Amino acid sequence: MIGQFGPEGGTLSCEDSDVIVEIPPGAIPPDRRDQLIIARICLCPDSIGPKLTDPDSLWLSPLVDLESPGLQRFDKNVLIKIPHRAQVQPGWTFSVHYTDPTTDTKSNWQTDTTRATVDQLPKAATFLPSKYTDTQAIWNCVEQKWHSRTEEKASNDVTRLTFSVDEKYVNISTSHFSQYVCSGCSKTHPLNLEAVVFWQHYKVKGLDQIDLTVYIIDIIKDTRKASVESNERSSKLAGAQSGMTPYSSLSLEYTSSEASSLVIFVDEECMDDDWKWSLKSYNGRLPAERKMSVESAIRGCCSSNMSTREMFTFVPRDPSEHGQLSFFQAMIGIKQLNLQDVVMKMPILVTAPLTKGCGAAGATNTDYTSSEEPISDVQIDFVVERLSSRKWRLLYRKLMGKGADISIEHIQHRDPSDSREQIHSALVGWRSSKGRMATVEKLITALQQVELRDIAEELQSFCKGLPE
């Protein structure tokens, strides 16, 4: 975000971001009528921010880099409102990490600095640091335990940074600009998250197909706009019908010493004799579910990964009746298990209207071949059995690109001694991350590029022998 302000002050904000900068009257000197205020927002603080050393700590906010070119200090404190994902309750210790505001905090960010005035809300963008970004900045920290009463905590340095925490924001008051990011430490890690399902309808070899992609993300608007919705736009097939459910609130927490699982599944109760669809993914086997630890799901929402997601694919039960179908409907469920006890269960009803019936809609859709379908579980298992524990990281970096190393750390943390499970988690995570773009062809190409041509050729031969 970028805006121009004068001595009268104003507010820097936009509809695609929850970050707000409030500049009071008199904060900008009278001789600076067109002071630029620049805010850059990074959703992956673990890539350029300080390192969290406490195993009970989580990132609770994006990293915000603020600049006021030519103005080192404001005459009055400005208020920086940074959104967080914590459920505020006793047990949290909140921390604000910030760089030295008296030094040059400019980073080599990839950004569009198109100007906007206070009367024109600037467009939000989320930024990844370029590979040349200086990550050696010295970070300071001020922390406080949360209490039910409003309380401000001040830093000890001369910049006099103070902050308080409410239900949605970490409110930072300061006379200087630098980089800011918020973390929290708790034994139970209660977070405010949300779930959403995107659907896509298209044809494969003349037959209708529906993909449901389930996301579990945090409640910060920047994540929705720059991560999830952007990913869905880029992965949408040409000519396909698409839509989404409303975002549903989801509260999760975990204790490190207790076993707790999160399950994303297709509710079998919707699959009665009158249901016109059948499950294609998971090789049609039930129960169709993805199970993971709550800790890994929560840490995924607090990291540079695009949170937790899973995709389910459906086709008409009777292909001869596909022209008579006018809508698709299924129930997706999310539940949390502590040991075997269900402590939370949330249903999400997905209804996809097929405007003119599947047959008519399909006439305008592109007819996609099976080579453009996501890689299957069988194909993933085939590669897992052949990929060396020394080579999978190289392949994963080639498949995922930027941010892969942070995901590798999480994968290794979840299964430190089981290399087979690490490889399986990496390939399933790639498929979940890229959706319909995670094809066998992409994997074969990546294998060839990292000098694993034998596995690439074996996979190619194996796929030719699979039934259509």
From TrEMBL:
Top-level taxon of the source organism: Eukaryota
Stretch forming the signal peptide: none
Domain ZU5 span(s) in chain numbering: 1-186
Residue ranges of every copy of the Death domain listed in the record: 391-463
Xref: Gene3D superfamilies: 2.60.220.30, Death Domain, Fas
One Pfam family, short name: Death
SMART domains xref list: DEATH
One term under GO cellular component: membrane
Organism in which the protein naturally occurs: Patiria miniata
GO-annotated molecular function: netrin receptor activity
Entry protein name: Netrin receptor UNC5
